[in-house]
């Protein structure tokens, strides 16, 4: 970790979850701030957390409302949402409101740490977007619009490239169907159009389109491009 510890604000009303996160993240060098409800969380934003872990089930402020309030005060801080297993609609809503990622309870500490690192990398990428994106064998030159897998140049249609560009700009982050449709088409709202282009893109950049390594499906929610190396 850096010499200056990264501050993580944990917003959860369950003491055992806060303890688990405090112990797991502290061992990795993170500096942990804790809030048991939304009111305390809003007060603790003045501490300048570099990342927020937000449980949607809070006692005083509805989780999505709190997410909206946090985004109103800080547009860029990465937010990873914790949600119950079956709350698919809640996850989609949180992502549309500006959350960077989500984890379903119960979760493993290794997976949480990986998601936190991806969210922090995504923030750095947005702040100083690199002209060439690399993840495994995939490289995308955003300036020259050249896409390669290994050393082989891939020819994409304009819409396929636009889809890949949006995924690259948010690599590591879950993008909802609604977000991608809005970015790529002005009027379309049918996710079937999106699935067609995702399938075409996978046919061109994946070694095995049926078991994709780059463009990953978040079932019922959207898609995520594997984070940069």
From TrEMBL:
The protein's name in its UniProt record: Response regulator transcription factor
Residues of the OmpR/PhoB-type domain: 130-227
Pfam families registered for this protein in UniProt: Response_reg, Trans_reg_C
SMART domains: REC, Trans_reg_C
Transmembrane segments: none
UniProt record, GO biological process: regulation of DNA-templated transcription
Domain Response regulatory: 7-120
């Amino acid at each position: 970790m850096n010499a200056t510890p990264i501050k993580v604000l944990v917003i959860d009303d369950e003491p055992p979850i806060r303890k688990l996160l405090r112990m797991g993240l502290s061992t990795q060098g993170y500096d942990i701030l804790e809030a048991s409800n939304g009111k305390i969380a809003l007060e603790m934003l003045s501490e300048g957390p570099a990342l927020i872990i937000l449980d949607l089930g809070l006692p005083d402020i509805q989780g999505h409302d709190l997410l909206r309030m946090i985004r109103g005060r800080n547009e860029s801080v990465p937010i990873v949402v914790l949600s119950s297993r079956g709350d698919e609609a809640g996850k989609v809503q949180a992502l549309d409101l500006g959350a960077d990622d989500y984890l379903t309870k119960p979760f493993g500490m290794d997976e949480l740490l990986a998601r936190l690192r991806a969210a922090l990398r995504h923030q750095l990428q947005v702040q100083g977007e690199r002209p060439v994106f690399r993840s495994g064998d995939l490289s995308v030159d955003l300036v020259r619009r050249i896409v390669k897998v290994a050393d082989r140049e891939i020819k994409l249609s304009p819409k396929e490239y636009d889809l890949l560009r949006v995924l690259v700009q948010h690599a590591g982050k879950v993008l909802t169907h609604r977000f991608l449709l809005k970015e790529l088409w002005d009027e379309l709202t049918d996710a079937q159009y999106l699935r067609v282009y995702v399938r075409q893109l996978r046919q061109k950049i994946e070694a095995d389109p049926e078991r994709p390594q780059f463009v990953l499906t978040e079932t019922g929610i959207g898609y995520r491009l594997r984070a940069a190396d």
